[in-house]
TrEMBL record, chain A:
<feature type="transmembrane region" description="Helical">
    <location>
        <begin position="188"/>
        <end position="209"/>
    </location>
</feature>
<dbReference type="GO" id="GO:0005886">
    <property type="term" value="C:plasma membrane"/>
</dbReference>
<dbReference type="GO" id="GO:0006605">
    <property type="term" value="P:protein targeting"/>
</dbReference>
<keyword id="KW-1003">Cell membrane</keyword>
<dbReference type="Pfam" id="PF07549">
    <property type="entry name" value="Sec_GG"/>
</dbReference>
<dbReference type="InterPro" id="IPR022813">
    <property type="entry name" value="SecD/SecF_arch_bac"/>
</dbReference>
<dbReference type="GO" id="GO:0015450">
    <property type="term" value="F:protein-transporting ATPase activity"/>
</dbReference>
<keyword id="KW-0653">Protein transport</keyword>
<feature type="transmembrane region" description="Helical">
    <location>
        <begin position="137"/>
        <end position="154"/>
    </location>
</feature>
From TrEMBL, chain B:
<dbReference type="InterPro" id="IPR054384">
    <property type="entry name" value="SecDF_P1_head"/>
</dbReference>
<dbReference type="GO" id="GO:0015450">
    <property type="term" value="F:protein-transporting ATPase activity"/>
</dbReference>
<dbReference type="InterPro" id="IPR001036">
    <property type="entry name" value="Acrflvin-R"/>
</dbReference>
<feature type="domain" description="SecDF P1 head subdomain">
    <location>
        <begin position="223"/>
        <end position="334"/>
    </location>
</feature>
<feature type="transmembrane region" description="Helical">
    <location>
        <begin position="357"/>
        <end position="377"/>
    </location>
</feature>
<comment type="similarity">
    <text>Belongs to the SecD/SecF family. SecD subfamily.</text>
</comment>
<dbReference type="Pfam" id="PF21760">
    <property type="entry name" value="SecD_1st"/>
</dbReference>
<keyword id="KW-1133">Transmembrane helix</keyword>
<keyword id="KW-1003">Cell membrane</keyword>
Amino acid sequence: MEIFKYKQAIDFMSNAKKFGIFSIILIVTALTLLFTKGLNYGIDFAGGTIIQVQYEGVAPIDKVREVVSKDPKYAGATITKFGSDSEIVIRTKQASKSVKGGAKVEVQKLLASTGTFEIRRVDLVGPSVGEELKTKGIMAMVLSIIGILIYLSFRFEWRFAVASVAALVHDVTIAMGMLALFQVDINLPILAAILTILGYSLNDTVIVFDRIREGIRTIKSPSMADVINQSVTRTLSRTTLTSLTTFFVVLTLFLFGGEIIHGFSFTLLVGVVVGTYSSIFVASPILMWLNFSVVDFREKEAAAAKRQKERDKQRAQFEQGTI
Amino acid sequence: MGNLNYRVVLFFFAFVFGVVFSIPSLTQSDEGKKITLGLDLQGGLHMLLSVKTEMALESKVKSIGTSLKYNLDNDDIVYDALKIDGDKVVFELLDEDDVKSIDEMLAENFAENKIVKKGMLYELSLTEELAKKTEQDAIEQAVETIRNRLNMFGLAEPTVAKQGAERILVEVPGIKTQEDEDRIKALIAKAAHLQMMAVDEDRANRVYSMSDEEAKSYGDVILPDVENKETKYLLYSVPILDGSMLTDAKVGYEEKSNRPMVTFSLNGQGAKIFGDFTEKSVGKRMAVVLDGEVYTAPNIVQRIGGGNVQITGAFTPQEANDISIALRSGALLAPVQVESQRSIGPSLGADNIKASLIALIIGFLAVIIFMVLYYGVAGLISNVALVANLFLILAVMSMFEATLTLPGMAGIVLTVGMAVDANVIINERIRELLHSGSSLTKSIEQGYNNAFTAIWDANITTLIAAVVLFAYGTGPIKGFSLTISIGILASMLTAILGTHGIYQLLLPKINKKKLGFWFGIRQEVKQKGAK
């Protein structure tokens, strides 16, 4: 089977500005959402308690709300359905420090009148732990971006590194905007998902850039736009196929992976879409706008190759003992 | 077989290694190293505890006060106003002639403390170093004590470890019932502070009308009975002896009533103190106090030698068992508190496994079918590599006896995606070259060459992110980054080396007229050298 066969390069770059404006609108919207609605930090980062209760049959959610609201200890608790109709989740900001008893025993007593149920999960995070996780999460993000920048500058050229990180920031910002829009609970797995987006977005960009790097050497045209258009067109089949398979795998996670990894797989779904988009329509134009000169690059490469040749020649002569 | 190249050999060994070492994990046999399921998959209790080290400091200062009093009295030094003031022990010297001898005494016995002299006023406190050491000791001791208790409790493989500078990680997998969970928590929290205290018989009849302050003024303390909290005892606050002189504790049964009881033995010194005290106090009562509650307060009929003591109470056999475990493992120097806790019921764990397995299998099957449909035999070759990749991940995780968590499973799913990507890139490159009219051999070799830098750079960047995550992550994140890292390394071996080797092996058999079948190309391409 073969779906993608392009005889001619698609002219992506002449529309680069339109896509640039589209991206800027997306980013501004995401930032607005982040600053107005804000991220909904789950207990991993904000601290608090989550109690997951499964009833035999449909959970009497109104009754539970009524009972729980009467207990001053659970002031401000929210109660929501969790996945199926029989399961509910109680969230509070409080986190009991006592080892014995605690939320599980309390809730067991509190809900005794509401029916037959089983407490399936209790997650409790104290405020100090939450703060620590937040710092560590940000550290992990910053350090991996720095590490990747260094690696890409070394393997490509600084403009490639800057463009790929710009695409990365673009993707992460939009993904986080979506998290704010849907008020997804930000917990540790979401952090993992964001970091996966980071990896995926780079993965995609690097593969396109690798083709551009190759194109600079092999494509005759001196115009960067031409080189990019041809190179992107050549990776288009791979980009589409991989994105589709990844998207499908993540979609199965989202649909069948259970409630607990719902937020995780949702974040990844967003990431796959924006990650694919950005490597073609964000990273590549930025490379062009950063005034990457194909001619200069070739000259530099030629000079480097010449130096290398000379060195080889000298070494050969040296080894043959002619010097 | 002239085509048996190093790539195929390597791939073959990797495949065999993968299958062999993942068997113990897949069959969950008892032998061999295997992957353990995380608490989110098998259910259990995870707690991050911290020690109230300020309490350890407090009791350290108190003990300085006690031994200071003992030393001052012993040396016949006249002093006044010896008391504990916050984190300091203060006292005032009354006779100036004692200055020399007290300085000698302090230098000899209290050199490790900070001593401040203001004229005749002395202040003793913990040096920063000593305070830090006391805090550290309290944490270390708590780790050790909790570990001992959980090991004695006898549930499958609990983990108790220090995390960071001041936290204690406790993980107990496989808790089946709420009762067990409650018992484990009670056992961890139990201070297990055992004391033998004498009843203040002179004032005992006034205990119900006495305030705590008044009791304190007599040097007494009022403690409740364990069964009936209304019953109170007036006890001398300085204990006769405490749990540090205990050598063993076990569960026994009373002869007549068959009620469970805890019996414990004292060491030589403890037995002597206990014997001497009971001899002096015939006709009086002595209370056995555990964690501030009186368990029993019998009349002393005669001298009790041998140092064996029994406590009875209204406990169930389980409680008696847990108390004796706590006593044997010793008291906690300072109480512990919960920083974070995750408790997952076994049924939820099973649901989690089911859900993620379904997702994994559907995703995997979809990818495999797609690859064959789209790339023909080339897709089949990629799939062989993919299966090998999965086995390799499982094998490496088994060898490290790693823990598989829910995010870890998501990591595997993601790696599957990346491994497929590598093969998509390679196959696209080969097709491109075939279309441009290159020979089959050249298309394959050149295709791998062209694809390599892209796959390499993409994998390394992801690996950088994964390694940073592993270093900075905790719990679930660590599991996720571990599977991704292993998966990336494994996919380089299977998806790049392995498939390349298989092509080289199959090269003579590839029918150049049937490239549609072999590489899924739509139109047959004219091949140079095709007959």
